[in-house]
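re the bet — no i am not wrong, look at it urself. input seq straight from the record:
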Amino acid sequence: MNGSVFNFDSIARHYDAWYDDPVGGTYDRLEKRAVECLLPPAGDGASLLEVGSGTGHWSAWFADKGYRITGIDVSEEMTRVAAGKNIPGARFIRGDFLDTEIKGTFDVVAAITSLEFIPDPVKALARMRGALKPGGHIIIGALNRRSWLGLARKLRGAKDPVFNQARFFTTGEIRAMMAPYGTPVVRGSTYALPFRPLLWSAEILERAGGTLCPCLGNFIVGKVRV
């Protein structure tokens, strides 16, 4: 599995349980709100390539927004779970995005928390660009190295087998990687602290964080139109 720094086959069957947890559900809601702010409306028959589609969690959301989805993921088990959800208008490919040929071009190419695990994210961005139709959009959702959660995960090191080899990013790094393809828009979001007793403050922190320290949210979302 040279296309990922972590073997997601081992956690595919229980991966979606994160979204059922109150903390995971809150993060999911805030992240999707941030992506929705930059996601172009799906026109009739609009297509979206999802890089690192995993269990199809985000694929289902993109499909609900009106896109026809092609998802690619290096994990055989994650791809099997995604295909088993029978998401309308979605198909899934098991393959390494860095060297798998994907036929056709797309209106949007998205990578949500997947660049962190791809060994060469710069090459991945170049391939995303190559898969776009003229005037298409690249959408990136990434974990922020300068956030509280990013720091906590790195400090846990080997105790966190999923993230200990992952590469987290800053808003500046996401902007720099996208800049060769157009003028990027990059925002921080999802300032909630991952503790159930503090989830009541999620919306307050989202408003305050977005105004006072937009580079420090737990989740970064970026868009560039080519």
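see?? The first strand starts at residue 47 and ends at 51. told u. also The chain has eight helices and seven strands. so pay up
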